[in-house]
Specification:
Helix content: 25-40%
CATH superfamily of the largest domain: Type I PLP-dependent aspartate aminotransferase-like (Major domain)
EC number: 2.6.1.18
Distance between the termini: 41 Å
Oligomer: single chain
InterPro entries: Aminotrans_3, Aminotrans_3_PPA_site, PyrdxlP-dep_Trfase, PyrdxlP-dep_Trfase_major, PyrdxlP-dep_Trfase_small
GO biological process, one term: biotin biosynthetic process
Number of helices: 16
Keywords: Aminotransferase, Pyridoxal phosphate, Transferase
Strand content: 15-25%
Bound molecules: pyridoxal-5'-phosphate
CATH topology of the largest domain: Aspartate Aminotransferase, domain 2
Pfam families: Aminotran_3
CATH class of the largest domain: Alpha Beta
Amino acid sequence: MALDRKATPNDLNAFWMPFTANRQFKKAPRMFVAAKDMHYTTADGRQVLDGTAGLWCCNAGHCRPRITEAIQRQAAELDYAPAFQMGHPAAFELANRIIDIAPKGMEHVFYTNSGSESVETALKIAIAYHRARGEGARTRLIGRERGYHGVNFGGISVGGIVTNRKVFGTMLGGVDHLPHTHLPGQNAFTKGQPEHGAHLADELERIVALHGAETIAAVIVEPMAGSTGVLLPPKGYLEKLRAITKKHGILLIFDEVITGFGRLGSAFAAQHYGVLPDMMTTAKGLTNGVIPMGAVITTAEVHDAFMAGPEHLIELFHGYTYSGNPIASAAGIATLETYKEEGLFERAAEMAPYWQEALHSLRGTRHVIDIRNEGLIGAVELEPIAGEPTKRAFSAFLKAYDKGILIRTTGDIIAMSPPLIIEKPHIDQLIGTLKEVLDGLE
Ligand SMILES: Cc1ncc(COP(=O)(O)O)c(C=O)c1O
């Protein structure tokens, strides 16, 4: 029989950790106790170079004074205001600033608290948009294999990462998937966007023919797929998706939770690739990861479809207690100011060629079967150990941590996405240490 016990301070048992090998972690915990700029400090006093901007979110680096102070000030002045039927200035101010840097044509912001919630929100808006325009049969949602759109039911339904889906039942009905764009046979070791694979967007025509365009509400893709291990859009692919969705009256949603706020060297991937979707989902870098916040950004066309009927009626029955929370809004404003003042998006673009060459210098290193990169993001794919997928990359992660660098792994892929303040010597350290780690792996 289980003991009736209370947790004691520093007992690791009570906290069921997310996306973590809990039993492994609790036997050999990896604890961060402080962070500054490019580095974390571990509980045993070591400095660890942040090769992943936390979880692809701390784009301005850690504990930036402007952001810290803005949060402190806002918490002391207006801690919370009801999100429904009431407002406060910071939420409006932040929305305007987001629109300032968003692609031309994006005009409205709906706040959430995470990337997952942004995805649910965008999917719901898409379906309700068509209904508001008298096309209520458009309810189908199209995602893509290997896509990651967070962990809620809508997101895992349109998502395509098998482990995130298969144990959770039947999910949403009326969902279909485009094929993923990973063609290692033709594109391995490509620097930047691969040449081959634009034709995979034509699969959307097949899906449209199968279900009928009049039943499809939206297509959602990551313009550059991050969590599955950094898969870039083949040249011409996003343009084709845009043309086909437009032709059939289907909304195109870019999930920019990772690509938003400078990761590719532009504010958003939509600008980097020159393709304008109807909606963009964001989170992470919006507040530098410091306070949970997300935002769905829409065109006027999407927003305006709801602005009909008597003015005393709520137009969209959707929202969260913490939508546009004052402290999160203050963090968002200070974050966008930091990006602008320090020119961090431009900096990411300037540093990208050095990053690319450093990453690709790992070609030929033991176990490496592919390297992919864009902006300040990169992936190194390893040959899996036969019969033990993920084990080799996880060993690399543990060894890298011991040697003072933080990387991320997904399957047998190592993904890196450092803060945009990274300097060349940090890149040298990150890649040099990773090479040592790979050379020493079984
Ligand atoms: C493209 C994309 N969408 C959604 C999410 C989910 O975000 P969150 O973990 O904030 O819910 C992520 C997280 O990595 C993501 O990369």
